[in-house]
Amino acid sequence: MSRVRKAGGGRSQLRIIGGEWRGRKLTFPDIEGLRPTTDRVRETLFNWIAPQIHGARCLDLFAGSGALGIEALSRGAAHCSFVDSSRKATNQIQAHLQTLDATDRSIVHPQSAMDFLAGRVGPWDIVFLDPPFGQGLVAPCCDLLESHQSLASESLVYVETGNGEPTAEPKDNWELYRQKRAGSVSYQLFIVHAR
Description:
Rossmann fold
């Protein structure tokens, strides 16, 4: 079950599940479509990527609550960039990073993921791609990551979609490493090999 709880005042709450800030609770605004990755899925994902997380440069696209990127920083990532088009969401993520004294290891971009990726950024070691369901955003984001060479060699790309939605279509150098379902969510982890 998700550990997202109502905190009152139109806000919700989740907790960091591992690392330096384990057990810390974060609140975030109720924003339509914002659906933080559940504890169960985060636990599985971070078990999968544990050998690569320390010192990694991470990108949290469609960051929402910031749960994935903040979890990565808690577990030893060197840096995380958070991208979300909601100013409410990015303001709250920035506040959390200040509270956790992590502003020197992070940057928050209040813009759309597509605009951010069009800027030829990176390279990233780990990318968290968890867009709003039902909007067909996975494939174009993966295309931009690949075509703009935004991924480091042997990088990891995590993709979360609703069941029944098209998932990422692996490119010739993308290896599907793990995949699972939990409730109404499907999630995959790809390793991106050098061309």
